[in-house]
Amino acid sequence: MRVLPLFPSQKGAVLVCDFLIVTGFYTGSLYLLLGPSANVYLIESAGWLRVLIAVFSVIGGLYFNELYSTLRISSRVGLALKLCNVFGLSLVFQTLLAYLNSSLTLPRRVVLLATLVGLPLIMVWRVVYSGFLWKLFGQQSVVVVGSGPLARELVQAIHESPERGVRLAGYVGDPVGDNMPGSLYLGPFSQLEAIVAEYRPDRLVVACDDRRGEAMPIEQLLDLRRNGVVIEAGPKFYEALRTRICASEFRPEEYIFDQTLVHRPGSLALQSIYINILALAGIVLLSPVLVILAILVACSTKGAIFDSQTCTGYLGIEFALVRFRITRVTPGTNRLVMTRVGRWLQRTHLQMLPALFNLVRGEMALVGPRPVRPEISAELARRIPFYEQRYALKPGLTGWSQINVNAKDPLDALAALEYDLYYLKHLSLSLDAYILLHRMRNIFSFAS
Q: Considering just the CA atoms, what is the radius of gyration of the chain in Å?
């Protein structure tokens, strides 16, 4: 699986720079305070491992404070507060680690000096980058060939995703007026070669809509390809920008011939193995928490502690999703209202802890499409082509679509399907780890 769709070029550049800067001020503090003996400390006392642990505590804090989500700084005060949070949490982490195993932490004076030096250094670096350096990282000039719906989607995606390192030079095709706000009309297809010679884009993205009579300029594209111009299909470029499949351009032959869009027994078997291990470990480790939450639920509402909901699962097989009950019946009206404990369970996502038993039974995965009730699933399958393809995967407690879109209506469900198909195509342990880390950040967000 490519890393680019998950971590765009500019974010990757910032991550590398952050790593080098943080490593630099921890190592520099070590040499400043220990002098020549720092070499012995790094090599013979496994000091390099202690430095790495300290560095990753800071990088993890930057991630959990969403400082890789948006690289442009809107408020320097907000940035300063987030960085204070980052280094404060890093100090707490290293202090707790020192109590557990002091051989894994740096000397306290080194950590304190590195914190005092590192906080303003990272602050200055991020402000400078946000001001103008971000324009220098990975900026690729792109000309979109076409003016149909996909072309408009691409233009919008480029404008909304500056961190992807793509700059739109303009589009070639039929002038479409205000349908492409902020874009530059360069000319018709007949002038494509002259436009490429003038603007010298890094690549052409072909997004012609043959359904509305927009014929692709094949001869000119072939000539440009022979002359070394990089040409990319619109749906593939859309997938890289949006990290989801473009459902409007999805064709039956892609499903028939693309082996990445069908269920793969080997990948699913590997996923099932580590899911079962993690689920069993989770039940054992969290059993005291499950008992305490069950008592709280029992005290807050009459009736069953657990609530079950029938959902459509792998290959369309129905199963009962188990959750903590979060509602109670009001006397007299028989209306369901959410309890105070239920609101807390829903807000902290602890309502879904009993679903660990669904994982052990093999009905669900940690990562996968959102579980959907059979009647809703049937209606969405009737409205949305290829919707049932999502059942090539087990539904998950979280997933690529869950962290990117909140499916509440058919339009949201279509976007969720695009993310589910993307996840199916790129199914891997690294993508699962990224999704789980992202979900953890949302649950334990220190920035909110």
A: 26
Task: Spell out the long-range contacts of 254-260 with Cβ–Cβ below 8 A and sequence spacing 24 or more.
Answer: 255/386, 255/389, 258/425, 260/424, 260/425, 260/426
Lowest mean pLDDT among 111-115, 358-362, 409-413: 409-413
Structural domain span for residue 18: 9-134
**The tokens of 435 are what?**
């999704």
Closest listed residue to residue 41, CA positions, set 117, 114, 105, 118? 105
Q: Specify whether 307 is located in the same domain as 437.
A: yes
pTM of the model: 0.74
> Is residue 258 included in any domain, yes or no?
no
For residue range 22-53, list pLDDT tens digits in order: 999 999 999 999 888 888 888 877 888 999 99
For residue 140, what are its two tokens? 């690729």
Instruction: Output the pLDDT for position 263.
Output: 57
3-state secondary structure of 101: coil
pLDDT of residue 446: 43
- Whether 290 and 357 map to the same domain: the answer is yes
CA distance 288 to 283: 9
24 touches 125 (CB < 8 A)? no
Residue 205: φ, ψ to 5°: -115, 115
